Amino acid sequence: MSSWFKRKEKGIQTLTEEKKDTPKGLWYKSPTGKIVEAEDLAKNFYVSPEDDYHVRIGSKEYFEILFDDNKFKELDIKMSSKDPLKFVDTKKYSERLKAAESKTGLHDAVRTAIGKSNGKDLVVACMDFAFIGGSMGSVVGEKISRAIDVAKKKKIPFLMISKSGGARMMEAALSLMQLAKTSVKLAQLAEAKIPYISLCTDPTTGGTTASYAMLGDINIAEPGALIGFAGPRIVKDTVGKDLPEGFQTAEFLKEHGFLDFISHRRDLKKKVNLYIDLITNQPVRA
């Protein structure tokens, strides 16, 4: 890939990608300008230690945080999307899928797994924003539904970690059907009296918010996460008014009763299991 920028002052014409001063991945700069070594960031649950900014992470990192010793059995590993509508915008949907798989190493925008968390079984479904913006298509809905079925059959709690731009437009109505399908599955889980915890991370928007992300027995979020249906710009243009400060942040939603609590990532495993212990009337584990 050619560089868009060359330094020409003093005869310097080094391509930006050839600069060796700071190897890619060694440092991370948060939106507030704080710089932290990548290794220190990982040790701190991918939270910038100076400003507490929660960096976007994916299923790999969440599984490491939640499952004991990072041991788990992944479900429906090779399930991948097709292109039944032969959708084309600036490029073919089939090409976008191949590119996303190649770039991320993922088969779609969600991974599901079962393992031990604080010594007890837990089913986790975690979305990956890196795969086409965490968009919800047929495979996302099907994998979440199957994970709920596993939780129901084995009578163990289900945790959904949402991180999504909403429904996948390349699958049109097939994508929208996943809102209903996952909602029905969660209703069945509730009838079986199996706990469902929904964790909203940055961002949780669109059809994801309109379905499983806000249907938890308990709805929680990470600090500063963007959570909403339509984006702030669209809402502002629709209502024709300036939006309140902090609109659609996790803190704003908690203040207005849409969330039960906000959890720092370092406390996530403990708080999820504390809730499970309370709702299932188990002795509180350390």
UniProtKB/TrEMBL annotation:
Pathway assigned to this chain's UniProt record: Lipid metabolism; malonyl-CoA biosynthesis; malonyl-CoA from acetyl-CoA: step 1/1
Membrane-spanning intervals of the chain: none
InterPro entries reported in the protein's UniProt record: AcCoA_carboxyl_beta, Acetyl_CoA_COase_Trfase_b_su, ClpP/crotonase-like_dom_sf, COA_CT_N
Domain CoA carboxyltransferase N-terminal: 25-286
Keywords: ATP-binding, Cytoplasm, Fatty acid biosynthesis, Fatty acid metabolism, Lipid biosynthesis, Lipid metabolism, Nucleotide-binding, Transferase
Protein known as: Acetyl-coenzyme A carboxylase carboxyl transferase subunit beta
Enzyme class: transferase
Catalyzed chemical reaction(s): N(6)-carboxybiotinyl-L-lysyl-[protein] + acetyl-CoA = N(6)-biotinyl-L-lysyl-[protein] + malonyl-CoA
Pfam families (alphabetical): Carboxyl_trans
Enzyme Commission code: 2.1.3.15
Record's function text: Component of the acetyl coenzyme A carboxylase (ACC) complex. Biotin carboxylase (BC) catalyzes the carboxylation of biotin on its carrier protein (BCCP) and then the CO(2) group is transferred by the transcarboxylase to acetyl-CoA to form malonyl-CoA.
SUPFAM superfamilies in the cross-refs: ClpP/crotonase
Principal subcellular localization: cytoplasm
Family membership noted in the UniProt record: Belongs to the AccD/PCCB family.
Taxonomic lineage from the root: Bacteria, Pseudomonadati, Bacteroidota, Flavobacteriia, Flavobacteriales
GO terms of molecular function: acetyl-CoA carboxylase activity; ATP binding; carboxyl- or carbamoyltransferase activity
Assembly and binders: Acetyl-CoA carboxylase is a heterohexamer composed of biotin carboxyl carrier protein (AccB), biotin carboxylase (AccC) and two subunits each of ACCase subunit alpha (AccA) and ACCase subunit beta (AccD).
GO CC terms of this entry: acetyl-CoA carboxylase complex
Biological processes per GO annotation: fatty acid biosynthetic process; malonyl-CoA biosynthetic process
NCBIfam families documented for this protein: accD
Cell compartment(s), UniProt: Cytoplasm
